[in-house]
Amino acid sequence: QITERIIVLFVVINSQEEVQGKYVVCVLFFLWNLLDVVRYTYSMLARMGIYYRPLTWLNFSLCIPLYLLSVLAKAFAIYVSLPYFESFGTYSIKLPFPFAFSIYFPYVLKMYLLVLFIGMCFIIQNLFSERKARLGTGNIKKKRS
């Protein structure tokens, strides 16, 4: 997760000044920070043996839609940056004749978007299973008499 954030922050956002002023960057930072405040507060208190029920619910329930929104914001930030990478040619490399190989960075970003959404599906599934294990299903079953 840290590597993913570093790639998005420094490679996509920091390298293109035009993207830095977009609203999606502010939304992305807000979602990242909100996720971290909930997750790290819960983890810190759990390490000390303190389990506060509302915080536990926030950690295992609210983090699922927040993570989904942060992935969508990240994908939109990458999508917004694609035209700038195409026009400026930033990070695109053409190797000399013996290799005759070139790396077109917008294609790398498009492949990253695909991997991002595939990984999101696995992580969401994992978050749901953690939630179910920690909080239960939430359904109240009636006993038969």
UniProtKB/TrEMBL annotation:
Its EC number is 4.2.1.134. GO terms for cellular component: endoplasmic reticulum membrane. The keyword Protein biosynthesis does not apply. It is a multi-pass membrane protein. One of its GO terms (molecular function) is very-long-chain (3R)-3-hydroxyacyl-CoA dehydratase activity. It catalyses: (3R)-hydroxyhexadecanoyl-CoA = (2E)-hexadecenoyl-CoA + H2O; a very-long-chain (3R)-3-hydroxyacyl-CoA = a very-long-chain (2E)-enoyl-CoA + H2O. GO terms for biological process: fatty acid elongation; sphingolipid biosynthetic process; very long-chain fatty acid biosynthetic process. The keyword Kinase does not apply. It is found in: Endoplasmic reticulum membrane; Membrane. Pfam families: PTPLA. The chain crosses the membrane at residues 54-79, 99-124. It is an enzyme of class 4 (lyase). Pathway: Lipid metabolism; fatty acid biosynthesis. Keywords: Endoplasmic reticulum, Fatty acid biosynthesis, Fatty acid metabolism, Lipid biosynthesis, Lipid metabolism, Lyase, Membrane, Transmembrane, Transmembrane helix. Belongs to the very long-chain fatty acids dehydratase HACD family. Catalyzes the third of the four reactions of the long-chain fatty acids elongation cycle. This endoplasmic reticulum-bound enzymatic process, allows the addition of two carbons to the chain of long- and very long-chain fatty acids/VLCFAs per cycle. This enzyme catalyzes the dehydration of the 3-hydroxyacyl-CoA intermediate into trans-2,3-enoyl-CoA, within each cycle of fatty acid elongation. Thereby, it participates to the production of VLCFAs of different chain lengths that are involved in multiple biological processes as precursors of membrane lipids and lipid mediators. This is Very-long-chain (3R)-3-hydroxyacyl-CoA dehydratase. It comes from Anhinga rufa (African darter).
